Amino acid sequence: MAYSEQRAYLELHLAVFLWGFTAILGDLIQLSALNLVWWRVFLTSLSLVFFVRIGKIVREVGLRRFLLLAGIGTIVALHWVTFYGSIKLANASIALVCMATTSLFSSILEPLIVKRPFVWYELLLGVFILPGIWLIVDGVDAGMNIGILVGLLSAALVSVFTSLNKKYIGSSDPLRITFIELGAATLFLAPFLYSLGGDKFWPSPLDWVYLLVLALLCTTLTFFLSLRALHKLSAFASNLTVNLEPVYGIFLAYFLLDDAQELSPNFYWGTALILVAVFGYTAAMRLLRRRRSKLLIQP
After folding, report:
1. Total-model pTM
2. What mean pLDDT value characterizes the chain?
3. Tell me: the pLDDT tens digits for 143-164?
4. For residues 18 and 218, is the Cβ–Cβ distance under 8 A?
5. What number of CA atoms fall less than 13 Å from residue 132's CA on the CB side?
6. Is Membrane among this UniProt entry's keywords (predicted)?
């Protein structure tokens, strides 16, 4: 079966659903944000060793693209450190809510990065998410404000590396790209472990279980699915779909982490606005395509 746009959306939604568990696992793992991310990228890179030809990877990809992908990998590392930092400074629900601003950042940054015109309805849909974020975050304890700022930085970094991946991956193998980017993230973070990683470096037995699920299911598989979907979808469409991550994640946190104290009635209104933006983009794109196709077939 040919890899269609519909299949790309389905695989991306599966990846986003699995990403919803990353905040839960990050909250459960008893490591600092930096150590947690290092183990995540290290285990993920290790899981891909048998699927890529390491000795030939630079020659097959090309030195310039290899270095570009490695640079993107450092941005991925910074995104995850700030994401889990937001969880530690606030909580899983707040960190996930901040991720919903990714499409707003993407509507501004993607045109600048991939050198394409700004699209008015992308900006409109991105801005449409802001009231939803405000409704969810309104009333949060002031002590969580730093966590919110770190979470917003994490969302901006997502839009940057997603746009860069869209620009540079071309037809490259998603597994090879994942190995290069996360291998580079592993090397980039390693020098900071001693000075910034905290006292606890080695995971506990239960942490090992959570880390393996995080690395293999929520990273290796999801990176492969999301990168493959980028061959068919725009970075903005991808990032807008990623806005479902907080929806999935916060509901999971409600049942698994006892984060119910963060879920006021405003949360549900905010969630509804995010859902309207996500599915509104898809509906708007379909409507525009139908109008364009009608114009093309008219005599």
Report:
1. 0.82
2. 82
3. 778 888 999 999 999 989 988 8
4. yes
5. 28
6. yes
